[in-house]
Design a protein that fits this description.
- With about 400 residues, the protein is of the alpha/beta class.
- The chain is built from 17 helices and 11 strands.
- It has a 7-stranded parallel beta sheet with strand order 4-3-2-1-5-6-7, with helices on both faces.
- Strand 2, helix 2 and strand 3 form a beta-alpha-beta unit.
- The protein is globular.
- It starts with 15 loop residues before the first strand and ends with a helix.
- The structure holds NADP nicotinamide-adenine-dinucleotide phosphate (NAP).
- NADP nicotinamide-adenine-dinucleotide phosphate binds next to helix 1, helix 6 and helix 10.
- The site of NADP nicotinamide-adenine-dinucleotide phosphate has 27 residues, from helix 1, helix 6 and helix 10.
């Protein structure tokens, strides 16, 4: 099953209850920023963080959710103390996170990073929620399963990733056969103009300094390697009714054209806007209506030039590796994601170099012979095995440095 957004949405006039999974992250903070600007339209049901307990306390005091959940149990005492007397329930741990996703919010923002977000997203989908999907790793690891659960439960999955949100806005779901291709734009990240020799020496601080977007550390590194675009290619494949060959990637350094849909008559529709995640988040939050955002308005006369270039898969092998994993299917996308998460973490910790990230991912894919998942439970087994393999490769590489 692919996305089917025309099954009807919520009543645009009524107050929408919202749970924000990963409220302490970049997507979560932007979501709460928008909710705070339209307090009459939203009620917050649950907020969850993992380690940033002080921010979670601050958010819970401001938004008064039914419950605030901290993933890390060692932070629970502080959460409880910080919210004493507020009437906000507190909880911690994995089970509490899943319970937060199960609470009856109409809309759930899936803003947890990595595969840790898969289970809570599934819980929200299974109870038929409208899910704003920021967590692309969910679709990469378990695209078929997640989409089937969405269909089975009659849930709605709304893409929040700016590129997929752009395609969602331009895609004619009533005439999907007239769509010829999807064109995903990529900023090219901070190392777009760097040579391979220069990239070998890039530090975590340089990799997370994205030229256009202010995002969490993991996705920022993914943008620098362009693995982010590789993950998005897989995400687009699962979301939209197209084949892999119909999805193109083009580098567009200004990040103003967020993505495009090409039709059989040669027309190409694009969604444009300044790079601000609050626009796609607002589109999902208010869907099927729209809401006002404080995002800067597009001034094309001031921008003057929008440029485009073909991606370079020699300097950015992640693009080639991700496409190959999508073509291979089976366990490969899950392995790709797991190996990438491990490699990025070790790059951020200083154990491996920037170009080692793609080496680890490709090495794990080459050595992995795991069977295709036939149940959702298989996905976590594939993930764990791939992480172990990635850890070993990281150790080998770091011992040689
Ligand atoms: N940021 C963007 O502009 C953007 C754009 C498109 C798509 N996305 C996608 O959206 C997702 C979130 O990205 P982000 O940039 O917002 O990441 P982020 O800033 O790193 O935030 C991640 C959130 O997940 C929580 N978290 C981390 N590990 C967790 C775990 N094991 N269990 C439960 N919660 C956990 C974090 O809690 P603590 O901070 O409290 O530890 C935080 O709330 C990613 O999948 C990313 O690819 C992000």
């Amino acid at each position: 099953m692919k996305i089917q957004p025309d099954r009807g949405g919520a009543d645009a006039g009524k107050v929408r209850s919202v749970t924000v999974l990963g409220s302490t992250g970049s997507i979560g903070c932007n979501t709460l920023d928008l909710i705070g600007r339209s307090p009459d339209r939203f009620h917050v049901e649950a907020l969850t963080g993992n380690g940033n307990v002080e921010l979670l306390i601050e958010q819970a005091k401001a938004f008064r959710p039914g419950v605030a959940v901290i993933g890390d149990p060692t932070k629970y005492a502080r959460l409880k103390e910080g919210l004493a007397g507020t009437g906000v329930e507190t909880a911690s741990g994995r089970a509490a996170l899943l319970e937060a996703a199960a609470r009856p919010a109409e809309f759930v923002m899936a803003g947890i990073v990595g595969i840790a977000g898969l289970e809570p997203t599934l819980v929200a989908a299974r109870r038929g929620a409208i899910v704003g999907l920021a967590n692309k790793e969910c679709l990469v690891c378990a695209g078929d399963f997640l989409m089937k659960e969405v269909e089975h439960a009659g849930a709605e999955l709304l893409p929040v990733d700016s590129e997929h949100n752009a395609i969602f806005q331009c895609f004619d779901f009533h005439a999907e056969k007239t769509v010829e291709r999807l064109i995903l734009t990529a900023s090219g990240g901070p190392f777009r103009e760097r040579s391979l020799g220069e990239m070998e020496k890039m530090t975590p601080a340089q990799a997370v300094a994205h030229p256009n977007w202010d995002m969490g550390a993991k996705i920022s590194v993914d943008s620098a390697t362009m693995m982010n675009k590789g993950l998005e290619l897989i995400e687009a494949y699962y979301l939209f009714p197209v084949e892999e060959e119909q999805i193109e990637i083009i580098v567009h350094p200004q990040s103003v054209v967020h993505s495009l849909v090409g039709y059989v008559d040669g027309s190409v529709l694009a969604q444009l806007g300044p790079p601000d995640m609050r626009t796609p988040i607002a589109y999902a939050l208010a869907w099927p209506s729209r809401m006002v955002t404080p995002s800067q308005r597009l001034d094309l006369a001031q921008i003057r030039n929008l440029t485009f270039e073909a991606p370079d898969t020699t300097r950015f092998p992640a693009l080639r590796i991700a496409r190959a994993a999508l073509r291979a299917g089976g366990a490969a996308p899950t392995v790709l994601n797991a190996a990438n998460e491990v490699a990025v973490r070790h790059f951020l910790d200083g154990a491996i170099g920037f170009l080692d990230i793609a080496r680890v991912v490709e090495g794990v894919l080459d050595r992995s012979n795991q069977p295709a998942p036939s149940r959702i439970e298989d996905v976590s087994e594939i993930d764990v095995t791939a992480r172990r393999l990635a850890g070993r490769l990281v150790d080998e590489i770091s011992s040689r440095r």
